[in-house]
Amino acid sequence: MNTTNFSSLDLHPDLFKNLNTLGYDSMMPIQQLSLPAILSGKDVIGQGKTGSGKTAAFGLGLLQKLDIKSFKVQSIVLCPTRELANQVAVEIQKLARAIHNIKILSLCGGTPFGPQIGSLAHGIHIVVGTPGRIEEHLRKGTLKLNQVSTLVLDEADRMLDMGFQESIDSIIETISVNRQTLLFSATYPDTIASIAQRVMKSPVMVRAPSIHEESTIKQYFYKINTDDERMTALRLLLAKYKPESSLVFCNTKRDAQEVTDELIYYGFYALAMSGDLDQRERGQALIRFSNKSVSVLVATDVAARGLDIDSLDMVINFNIAHDEQVHTHRIGRTGRAGRTGIACTLYSDRETYKLNALELGIGNEIIPDSLPSEHYLNKPIKKPPMTTLKIDGGKKQKLRPGDIVGGLTGKGGVTFEKIGKINILSHWSYVAVSSELVKTALRKISHDKLKGRSFKVRILS
Fold first, then answer.
1. Measuring CA to CA, which of 27, 48, 135, 453 is 20 to 30 A from 330?
2. Where is the Helicase C-terminal domain positioned along the sequence (predicted)?
């Protein structure tokens, strides 16, 4: 039997018949890899981007085990946005066409609460929704999840980016531990590994082939003669490659600050990360950098400890590392999740002994590369794609990620795709918005209300 065909699966005849009418014959890679484990009741982590076919994978899994005669919520799918939740609900409805009287409900913010209560009262089999609205229904007692046998976390990395960690945790607490948990994510950062460890039982991990490639880091070494030339080399590399996110390593706090000051002087969007920053300053610097509203972070090895930054385009060793292990750790921060990363190292004659030690460590002769042409210094410096807004309200004011998204995307606002990461702290919240729509975002939050209240908002700089 052809294992790429849906016919190779032990699916309910009605589901299989409907797949044929939909023209679904061969399985996409994520479906082929995950469906056997899903159908056998195992917890599964599926790494795949939007469009990989993951919705059909978990949709068929939860439909297969559904008890149609029981009008209790048996499956719940958590999604980061209203748009995605609605898409998922439509897709599952399409897969379930041959099953009579199946009830699927989308529960999202930005839509009236009353009709949702009415629908829930009539009995629902599958709920698809955003964490904020589902948590609200749980608080008000209008939604019960004690009969849920399948929990799906869809685009889990995006949900964590948007600050839904606490909401997800409180929702999971209301669901039986004897459940099947399916987690799908485009990337697999430490935060996802941590949540998987807490809420899943011996999960099977599968990756769609497009992101199963090993990470590729292109390394370049440049010999420089003077301190001025070292700074010019750094500017040339940043001007040529135009990275959205780059980490520059210096060996001392003093160098890190001086390099940052020079970069800012020449028009780069840079921040220094040193041990001298207090916790609030460090937190704000990290938020701005991970939000892609600052392009260059300059740090020492000590200050960079614990930084969990995804999608780092480039690492530049302004000073060569003290040993091969530190060098490997530095450059390993780029080229993650199948992306290509660039690592550039600057060194002088007096650092040749470090270079020799590095050659021994990596087992290859290091051949110096030629620096980019100085004409790059005349090119305009690329502005960061996002700008971070600081809102004077946070957890203490009961602000939630959904409130901020709803406030920004209302009438005359910004589209969801233009909103980046959201961080909600005790008394402040931070949201990244596309740089070209900053004025619109400021106006929306300044003039409209969040949770019925007005909040001050400004650009974080």
1. 48
2. 216-385
